[in-house]
Amino acid sequence: MFKNLFNKNSEKNIEIKQDWASYFTRVDDNPASIRLNLGLYEIAPIEKYENRLWFSVQLLNPDHNGFTTREEFPAICKIEDDISDALEKKGAIVAGALKTNGTFDLYFYTTTKIDIAKLASEVMQRHPNYRYATDSKIDVKWSDYFDFLYPNEYEYQTILNQRVLNNLHQEGDNPNSERPIDHWINFQTEADRNSFITAVEKIGFKILSKEKTEKNLFQLNISKISDINWNTINDSVWELITIAKDNNGFYDGWGCPISK
Predict the structure, then answer these.
(1) What residue segments make up the domains of the chain, in order of their start?
(2) Measured between alpha carbons, how far apart are the two ends of the chain, in Å?
(3) Which tens digit of pLDDT belongs to each residue from 157-177?
(4) What's the CATH fold of domain 153-255?
(5) Which residues fall within 8 angstroms of residue 178, CB to CB, at 6 or more apart?
(6) Which fold has domain 2-149?
(7) What is the pLDDT of residues 39-79, one digit of tens each?
(8) Do β-strands 12-17 and 2-7 pair in parallel, antiparallel, or remain unpaired?
């Protein structure tokens, strides 16, 4: 779960949690898939790791969305492994990857100015059929990680939704079975919570409980009967996030009983 890196410049160990996740989005109005280490969020930007390296390879036969096909997937995985291994040996941190518009991109951060063009040229001699590109820049604030790779609140919740759905699937849950789905939302004031309640009762949510937490937040637990198919859950959660934002609140997750 954790990876230790030794930063020679600051002479200290950096413990990086490996919390990888993927989500779908759009980049330049094209379908895109981003995979990143969410574990970097709590420690980035990391001192001295101010050099952002970028490697991009052009897919030979992308599908209609611009993503890798099943047939080409192993070759792209091998290229990713080779580039990542070469850079990690030089102390680079892998931040994330992007697939979109027929390309596969990798993002790294490092303490030293690595000649990414030279390194990629050496690695890609093993993959002569592929065209590729490289780039490097100073990114002290890790803007490429926080402002580009990192999901917005809707995309982030989609990641969390998928993790809950995966756990339910492992328990043998039937996603088509309707049952009460509980949601939690927090507010800074009771007035905001009451305003939110008025809005969600109009769209069929039942109020289960209203409490004040140890952090002086006004918590609300609501419920609505539905299935837990992917689109159903995401649509419902995104709607609640929007209503919560309109009332100065923040969405805090959902749960449900297993149904077989």
Answers:
(1) 2-149, 153-255
(2) 32
(3) 999 999 999 999 999 999 999
(4) Alpha-Beta Plaits (3.30.70)
(5) 225, 226, 227
(6) Alpha-Beta Plaits (3.30.70)
(7) 999 999 999 999 999 999 999 999 999 999 999 999 999 99
(8) antiparallel
